[in-house]
Amino acid sequence: MRKTAQKIVPPWHRRYNFHGVNTVKAIYPGSFDPVTNGHLDLIARGSKIFDHLVVAILRNSSKYPLFSVEDRLEMLTEGVASFGNVSVATFDGLLVDFAREQNAQAVMRGIRAISDYEYELQMALMNRRLAPELETIFLMPDGKYSFVSSRLVKEVFELGGSVDGLVPKWVIDRLKQRVPKS
Ligand code: PNS
Question: What is the pTM of this model?
Answer without folding.
Answer: 0.91
